[in-house]
């Protein structure tokens, strides 16, 4: 029996003015918050290395550290982008464009992965997210990293739905850039790749399996080669140390539990220290258990609706036609879940051996790329049989809590001392001090 992609019928969606208007409102709201909170960019110790490497690339054609040694601690894509912008104003524009692009891409993915009613709220929820605003204020790599992650998920879904080679090539190119922007891209690719392999292996023909393996291998190749260069060619000193014990792992799990919990609930800053760490860690584990996208028969609505018009256009899928578009949708949701779990678990584990990513400030920064996927998974896991009035009330409270917090964080970010105007060689390091611990 052939497993080659078979034609299926996909409905041509009619224009929906409401979702279009909500996307516009969400985009304008995000840009307004960004313009208010980020009149100027700020920096930390990491920013100093990024900016200096960008400066030396423009001046000498080489990425160098402050001490004149080859740049090696972080991947090279972000300082290369900084060098291309040429000024702090250009970097600010880059961050704003990346945040807007992320919102549009995650909003589009929400329309594909969620029932239509829940997808309507997604642009507003994304626009009111604190993590994007926080990382957009500082000269950090997370804004572009989030954009690449959203683009990767969108292109991957297009390949799963169409089996067209150009989508696979695009997914591979974007996947290759992910770990060259942030090393955490390797964690996202690992988690998502495992989910894709486990979920699709027995449904793909031999050619499809080899293509998927080739895609995942090439996607991680750039990040792995950079690590080899840093460790063995440049011989960078190790940033790791003997393990600090499992207490540090519990503390880091608690940090991520608090950060992700505060995305969903109106938790005060004092709650992190006022609740035992094991409870935050259990809460983190429980959240991921609840968010797991259980396989169940889909009521095919919205983007997944069967054809209802005689002019519905033909489409292909990477899987047998009996699976339908809902199988690709389910598979991508599982990949998003696995990527989020892998990133949090691996970064928390790394804090046992390294100083980075420890503490709630770093936790919100490192987890910022997960805000879009977590919101989508929460909306996907929303009980379908819950009374409509209850669901509307809870979603309204969620929006209010996000709006209240993002307003306070925007005010705090606006007061952070800016980088010196016209300076492109790096700031003196000073603390972040806002975000996860801010009121």
Tell me the overall shape.
Answer: globular
- State the helical fraction: 55-70%
Strand order in the largest sheet: 1-2
Gap from first CA to last CA: 61 Å
- What's the helix count? 17
Note the quaternary state here: single chain
The description of the largest β-sheet is: 2 strands, antiparallel
Query: Element order, helices and strands?
Result: EHHHHHHHHHHHHHEHHHH
Instruction: Give the overall average pLDDT.
Output: 85
Total count of domains? 1
Low-confidence stretches: 1-15, 297-315
Features:
mainly alpha, 17 helices, 439 residues, two-stranded antiparallel sheet, single chain, 65% helix
Architecture overview:
This is Glycosyltransferase RgtA/B/C/D-like domain-containing protein. With 439 residues, the protein is mainly alpha-helical. The chain has one domain. It contains 17 helices and two strands. It has helices at residues 17-37, 45-60, 77-85, 88-113, 116-127, 130-137, 142-162, 165-181, 184-200, 206-233, 246-264, 271-274, 277-291, 324-350, 360-367, 371-380, 388-414, and strands at residues 8-9, 314-315. A two-stranded antiparallel ribbon has the order 1-2. The longest helix has 28 residues, at 206-233. The radius of gyration is 22 Å and the shape is globular.
């Amino acid at each position: 029996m052939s497993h080659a992609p078979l034609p299926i019928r996909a409905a041509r969606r009619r224009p929906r003015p409401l979702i279009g208007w909500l996307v516009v409102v969400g985009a304008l709201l995000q840009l307004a918050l960004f313009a208010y909170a980020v009149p100027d960019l700020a920096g930390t110790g990491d920013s100093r290395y990024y900016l200096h490497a960008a400066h030396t690339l423009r001046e000498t054609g080489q990425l160098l550290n402050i001490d004149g040694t080859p740049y090696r601690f972080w991947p090279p894509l972000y300082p290369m982008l900084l060098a291309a912008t040429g000024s702090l104003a250009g970097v600010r524009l880059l961050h704003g464009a990346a945040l807007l692009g992320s919102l549009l891409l995650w909003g589009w993915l929400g329309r594909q992965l969620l029932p239509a009613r829940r997808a309507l709220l997604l642009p507003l929820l994304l626009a009111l997210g604190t993590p994007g605003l926080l990382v957009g204020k500082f000269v950090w790599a997370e804004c572009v990293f989030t954009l690449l992650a959203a683009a990767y998920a969108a292109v991957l879904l297009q390949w799963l739905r169409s089996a067209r080679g150009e989508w696979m090539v695009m997914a591979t190119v974007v996947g290759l850039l992910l770990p060259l922007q942030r090393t955490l891209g390797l964690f996202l690719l690992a988690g998502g790749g495992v989910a894709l392999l486990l979920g699709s292996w027995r449904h793909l023909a031999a050619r499809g399996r080899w293509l998927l393996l080739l895609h995942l291998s090439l996607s991680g190749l750039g990040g792995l080669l950079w690590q080899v260069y840093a460790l063995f060619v440049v011989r960078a000193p190790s940033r790791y140390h003997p393990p600090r014990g499992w207490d540090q792992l519990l503390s880091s799990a608690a940090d991520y539990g608090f950060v992700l919990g505060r995305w969903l609930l109106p938790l005060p800053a004092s709650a992190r220290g006022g609740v035992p760490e094991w409870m935050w860690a259990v809460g983190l584990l429980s959240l991921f258990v609840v968010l797991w996208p259980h396989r169940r028969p889909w009521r095919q609505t919205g983007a997944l609706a069967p054809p209802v018009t005689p002019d519905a256009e033909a489409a292909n899928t990477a899987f047998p036609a009996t699976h339908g578009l809902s199988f690709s949708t389910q598979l991508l949701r599982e990949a998003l879940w696995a990527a989020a779990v892998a990133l949090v678990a691996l970064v928390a584990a790394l804090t046992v051996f390294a100083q980075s990513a420890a503490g709630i400030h770093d936790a919100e920064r490192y987890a910022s790329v997960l805000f879009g996927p977590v919101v989508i998974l929460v909306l996907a896991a929303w009980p379908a049989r819950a009374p409509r009035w209850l669901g509307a009330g809870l979603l309204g409270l969620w929006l209010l809590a996000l709006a209240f917090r993002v307003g306070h964080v925007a005010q705090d970010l606006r007061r952070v001392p800016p980088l010196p105007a016209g300076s492109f060689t790096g700031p003196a390091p000073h603390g972040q001090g806002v975000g996860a611990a801010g009121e």
